[in-house]
Design goal:
Layout lengths: L1 E3 L3 E8 L3 E8 L3 E7 L1 E5 L6 E3 L4 E4 L3 E8 L7 E8 L7 H9 L8 E4 L4 H13 L8 H17 L13 H11 L7 H7 L4 H10 L4 H19 L4 H7 L5 H12 L3 H9 L1
Helix pairs in contact: 2-3, 4-7, 5-6
């Protein structure tokens, strides 16, 4: 998994067995090409979207979705390549002017690209490789390659838009925690960062049917899931990176959140 601030992120995801993954918050536009297995995405009352190898799914960002990553009958692991676009790129002057002049539709929460064009697929892979931390490609060039992907989507009649600002306090808490997952966050410290009293923070979270402890665990576990899928780091190292010194405690929390263990994500083939 590779991230460049202000530009985007790229990941190569592998998963050893079929898993149902519920309530994952996707904040930024994400394009996913399926290489092996199947991917099904559900968002609220919207119709589910399923993609097979050679197809792609575009997630608009700003939504909470459910995933099912499935394996085919041959038993090969699920495999996909992902590209995340930082919303800052949506403000590019030329791209914005083209969007304003076309009748391209904003995608729904999840949109199937049944037959992605070879040009889009090539631009996608070029941008994904350029984002790699080991790449010598300068940020300015990475930016242009990501914009190329956005323009090919526009040619297909799909315009990316900045996700609407969600005023919920729970999302502000998530945004704060995810910047430093290994920090020893407390309700008091988070409330101070948000210029609120602890009592006000807890009350507003309760009004959104959640709590600080639930958000802390959920944010850490969602990131841990991505790291398990998209890296080969040991489970103990991933546990530390999301704030757990004890691998066993991390495994318990992970199972409570997703219903399966951290090692299940990779399966025997990928351990």
């Amino acid at each position: 998994m590779h991230v460049r601030a202000g530009l985007g992120a790229a990941a190569h995801v592998m998963q050893g067995r079929e898993l149902e993954i519920l309530r994952i918050r996707v904040e930024q536009p994400m394009l996913i090409f399926i290489d092996k297995g199947t991917k099904t995405v559900r968002c609220g009352d919207s119709p589910s979207v399923q993609a097979f190898p050679g197809q792609a799914i575009l997630l608009a960002g700003g939504h909470t979705v459910d995933f099912n990553n499935g394996v085919l009958e041959d038993g090969e692991p699920y495999e996909a390549r992902c590209l995340v676009v930082d919303p800052a790129l949506l403000e590019d002057a030329y791209y914005a002017s083209r969007v304003a002049m076309t009748d391209a539709a904003a995608p729904g929460p999840a949109q199937l690209l049944r037959q992605p064009s070879p040009d889009l697929a090539a631009a996608f892979e070029s941008a994904r490789r350029a984002l790699a931390l080991t790449s010598a490609v300068p940020d300015a060039v990475v930016r242009q390659r990501l914009l190329e992907v956005m323009h090919w989507l526009l040619e297909a009649g799909i315009a990316l838009h900045r996700p609407q600002v969600d005023p919920r306090i729970s999302l502000k808490v998530r945004s704060l925690i995810i910047r430093r997952l290994d920090h020893n966050w407390t309700a008091t410290s988070v409330a101070g960062q948000l210029a609120l009293s602890e009592a006000t923070l807890r009350r507003r979270l309760a009004e959104e049917s959640t709590s600080f402890s639930e958000l802390l665990v959920d944010t850490r576990m969602a990131t841990a899931l991505t790291l398990l899928q998209a890296t080969t780091h040991p489970v103990s190292e991933i546990a530390l990176s999301v704030g757990y010194e004890s691998s066993s405690r991390f495994a318990v929390r992970f199972r409570q959140r997703f219903g399966f263990s951290p090692t299940t994500v990779r399966g025997k083939r990928l351990c």
